[in-house]
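Bumping with the actual sequence this time:
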Amino acid sequence: MKKKNGISIYFMQILFALVPLIIGAIVLSLVAVNELVDNLEEGAYERLEVAALGANKYFAYDIANGIDSQNEDSDAYVDTFKGNGVEVTIFKGDTRYITSLRNADGSRNVGTKANADIWATCKAGQNVKKGNVDILGTKYYVFYMPIYDVDGSVWGMAFAGEPMSTIKAAQNKVISINIAIAVGIVIVFAVIAFIVANLVAKPLKQIAGTSEELSKGNLVVDLHAKSHVSEIRSLIDSTIQLKDALLEAVGTVKTSAESLSVAVVEVDEKTAHNVESVTQINEAVGEVAETSQNVAESAQNMSEKAIQLGDNIERLNENIEVLKNASDQIMVANNEASEYMETVLNSSNESVRAVTEISDKISATNDAVKNISESVQMIDDIASQTQLLSLNASIEAARAGEAGRGFAVVAESIKQLAESSSENAAKINDIVQKVTAISSETVSVAEKVKSIIEAERGYITETQGKFSILSGAVDESVAGIGSISEMAAELDSIKNELTGSTTDLGAISEELGASAEEVSASCSTVAGACTDTQAQTEEMRAINEHLTEAVSFFTI
């Protein structure tokens, strides 16, 4: 079932009833409380002004006649105001002269000074009223009034004060009472709103449930809703009438649909049987016509293929002659290639022998070079010994002095000859080393060449084998070409017989096809009429099924 969205009418009525009521109660309570708080503060200042004025008048006579008023009667007088929660003080100048305020030890708070700003204001002939003034650790609402002497000068001040806690307690009490009244009113009206909303929403909910069942096709649902609202009663009666009308209409349609369904099924079955019979006849005739046409086409194709076969046989004979000539040429070329391969193989053998002789000569050269290297080493050793002998001879000549000078010259020449021999031996040795390296590389190259030639000899041998196989295949091909030539002659004879048979078969097939087409045309006309009837019957069946399906949605 699809999820229901939106707010219920029950909840909407509650909202419309309570939201304005709650907002109004809050606004009125705030306004009333604010006014009451202001009135309480103004009333407090008025009480303090009356008390200050009374104290001012009470002591004005004594002050005018110079009487000292600081006695028990004056104290008793100012204490009478305490019954109303008001403290009274007479200031002489800015000093407390007579007061009902008491210190923590119970003594009267006389002799203390007033606030300088307050005294300055009263001295200027003005009253002072203030709140949140700290006196002996307690916050007060205060009222100061100047007291005048007989000469019109300010003698002092009359003070009246009331603790702020008293006023705040009264304010809180007023606020609590207002809140309680507002809550009580909201609760009473909320109960009334719930009752009224239930009276309106309950029948509407029952009507909605009945409508939902009707939307599901349930036409036997009962509606027992009642209401004292005329519009809702009209809605209940309309819903009941709609249900009865739907029940009657759907019942009639359902009965008619069942009868129509039976008739349509009978017509459809008979039409389908006729269509099936005509279709089978039409298909059989069509198959005959199609078969005749196919036979005619096949005969025509066979005739054409026979002609093409004759042409192909003629071309085959020509190709066989060409192939035979080519085979002969291949045979000659194969024989010549075999002779050439024999020559190449002999030449390769000669190359291997030549490379082997070169490798042997190079090896002999390497041996000779090694002998030269050994001889050079021997010369180098002799040169070293000669140098040593030359050195010894030089030493002996030096010992002999003047007599050995000539011998020293000979020793020097021998030394130079030894050094020259040693240098030449070193150069020869370098040349021998290079020759040896080159000879080694030449031997390696000769070995590679020998390996390559050996591989070529293998390839040449294999190629000779292939030419032998090719020669045998060519001989077989020549024999096969001769057989193909004989079969081509037989095919030409068969082609001539086939051409005559296919011509006769084509004529017969064309006559059979013409007759079948005439019968098929007649069957097609009948089948078309039956098909149209069946199509209309199918359309009626579809309409009836759709109607039946639509009506089956309802429960009656």
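The tokens above came from a reply further down the thread. The longest helix spans residues 230-400.
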